[in-house]
Each structure stands twice: as C-alpha cells, then as structure tokens.
Amino acid sequence: MLIFPKSVDTLSALEIDADKNWQTFGIVNLKELVSGMQRGDILAHDGTRIVKLAPGNIGDEFTSNGPGQPVSWKAPPVMED
Predict the structure, then answer these.
(1) What global pTM score does this model have?
(2) Residue 24 needs a FRET pair 20 to 30 A away by CA distance; which of 3, 47, 59, 60 works?
(3) What are 43-49's contacts with CB under 8 Å, separation 24+?
(4) Which residue from 39, 37, 40, 41 is spatially nearest to 18, judged by alpha carbons?
(5) Please, which residues bridge with residue 62 across strands?
(6) Alpha-carbon span 22 to 28, nearest angstrom
(7) Backbone angles phi, psi at 80, to 5 degrees
C-alpha cells in the first residue's frame, strides 16, 4: 500500500519529524539545531554532522575553503584596478 503525505506548497510548510531515529543517515542533531535558530542562521554539513552557522558581518561572503574544509564567512577579496 502506498501512503502519500499531505502536499505542501512551500518549503516552510514542510513538517520534519525531528524525533525520528534517522539511523545512519547523519541527521542526529536536527531538533537541537532548529530549536536554537535565530534569524539569519544557516545550516551546513561540517563533514561529520550538520552544524548551525550564525550570520557573518555585513558584507562578508559565505565561502568554501576547499574540499574537506569547513565553510565560513569571510570578507570578500579586494579587487585592484
């Protein structure tokens, strides 16, 4: 028997069972992360688990630091003429 979940029109209407046993899927701390989120926070994977990142300074860019390195907020590079 197929069970179809109720449809949602927006991502914000999606309900996630944060208490579910996700076993080996790496979602182990979702409930704690979401309950402590503030405006501007984002979630990223640090290679082991999902972590919360607070907003950077005004003008900072969300930056990849290369394969295997954590993402971070950094000032944009200075462009010389």
Answers:
(1) 0.53
(2) 3
(3) 44/70, 44/71, 46/70
(4) 37
(5) 73
(6) 7
(7) -100, 145
Please identify which residue in the block is written with the tokens 């197929």: 2
Scanning 3-77, the segments in alpha helix (DSSP H) are: 30-35
- One-letter amino acid at 78 equals V
Question: Predicted confidence band at 5 (pLDDT cuts at 50, 70, 90)?
Answer: low
What is the rounded CA–CA span in Å between residue 12 and residue 19?
18
Task: Using alpha carbons, select from 3, 36, 30 the residue that is nearest to residue 15.
Answer: 30
Confidence at residue 1, expressed as pLDDT on a 0 to 100 scale: 46
Tokens 């290369």 locate to 66
Which residue is it, tokens 């971070």? 72
